[in-house]
Amino acid sequence: MKMTDRILEKEIKENPSGFKYFCYKWTNLTNDKWYFGYHKGEVWDGYWQTSSSPELREDFSNSNINWKYEVIEWFETKEEATRYEGSYLRNNNVRTNDMSYNISEGAKPKLDVHKAQIMAKRILGDGDNASCGEFDVKFGKKEELTDMHTFQVRYQEYPDRIQYIADRIEENGGSIEYTDPLVMAIGAEDVLGFDRVRIGGKHTQKGIQKSKSATQYKYVDVDLTDWSKVEIGQLGLLLNPEDEKKRKENDNDDYEKQLLGLYEEYGIKPFEYEASQMLVGFGLNSRTRGVIANRVQKKVEDVEYEQMTGKVWKKWNVMSAEAQDLKAEYRLSDKTLVIMMTSAKMSMDNIQNKLLYSDYDKVVVVVHHPSKDWKTAWAKTNQKKYYDLMEKFVEPAGYDFEFEEASTHESDNS
């Protein structure tokens, strides 16, 4: 009997990107025992498995045993495939798992993307209130919040969420019954700088502080000994699921920051398996995951370019002495207004307000670019857009104008 005749069940994941590596799983339909591995090639290219397990070899050669064959995931590189294999085998405890034919754990993954997901479920429980998790909820005095050490997970904060929490507390006479416990990381001093650091509940903390009536806060202590900063950041984002009543869902900027940290700490790029699975774990749809990965990929390319060329993108501070010196170079007379602006946020109102009731007869706008993308956008469309606005509103009022671009790299002298 041919091997293909003994494969009674098949689940083959599609490969739209044309990758050459995949992870597969064999399941013995007689006893449900399984084997997990990876392969380079096509699904039906004659390769079945190369396990050194005597038991698997014996069962594979037994024509009375039928199998289920699954292609679980496709990968661009061998390294990604082996990391996925190692992660799967470790998560399923193959060394002590009697239902696995595998006899080793395979390659050690750079990062276990499931680690934070498991911990988040332990903290949040089955519902969407942290108090239903397995950790004991404790109480502290409100005054302790003032000097509390925190780990920045969110890209930005939302004053409306903070005000909502504060108002809710006031409506309940100072009761914190409807607030979630702050999640406090302990044991991670080597990566966070302090032994006890808040990683979840930023808006809750500030809402309690803003409340005049609150006297306490709730918290849970979570031991994160030996966790990396990326793993802690992932956990922090997972502790912020969408909940319009009390929390504010994460922004794409939060996820981009997390993926960039994944690259910086582990060298894992945004389209590699661990990064993709991290975004999946955050509950994002495929389109959003693609948008985030593409944006981070551009940032990664910028970092790699800087490393290759030694050119570092310049971050201008318009109030710095260097910026003042640059502006002075363009100030040819007392009647020349020189103003420095970022191409990410040009303000015509600011220009017009400075010209109003002044003795200036010319304005020079020195433009600096916060990133390569903004420089490209300026060259393609934005420069013409603002040039047209200056021609329409500034020039008719009797002012000459010109745009100048600040240097974009630390090594630039011009």
Largest sheet: 4 strands, mixed
Question: What is the overall silhouette?
Answer: flat
Q: Any idea of the CATH topology of the largest domain?
A: Conserved hypothetical protein from pyrococcus furiosus pfu- 392566-001, ParB domain
Structural class per helix/strand content? alpha/beta
Number of helices: 13
The count of DSSP E runs of length 2 or more, i.e. the number of strands, is 11
Instruction: Work out the count of structural domains.
Output: 3
Characteristic terms for this protein:
414 residues, 4-stranded mixed β-sheet, alpha/beta, Conserved hypothetical protein from pyrococcus furiosus pfu- 392566-001, ParB domain
Could you write a compact summary of the structure shown?
This protein is of the alpha/beta class and 414 residues long. It is 38% helix and 17% strand.
Describe the model:
The chain has a 4-stranded mixed beta sheet with strand order 1-4-2-3, with helices on one face. The protein has a 4-stranded mixed beta sheet with strand order 5-8-6-7. The protein starts with 6 loop residues before the first strand and ends in a 9-residue tail after the last strand. It has 3 domains: 89 residues, no CATH class; 197 residues, Conserved hypothetical protein from pyrococcus furiosus pfu- 392566-001, ParB domain, CATH 3.90.1530.10; 85 residues, no CATH class. It is an alpha/beta fold and 414 residues long. The radius of gyration is 29 Å and the shape is flat. Helix 4 crosses helix 6 and helix 8 crosses helix 10. Helix 13 links the parallel strand 10 and strand 11. About 2% of the residues have low confidence. It has 13 helices and 11 strands. It is 38% helix and 17% strand.
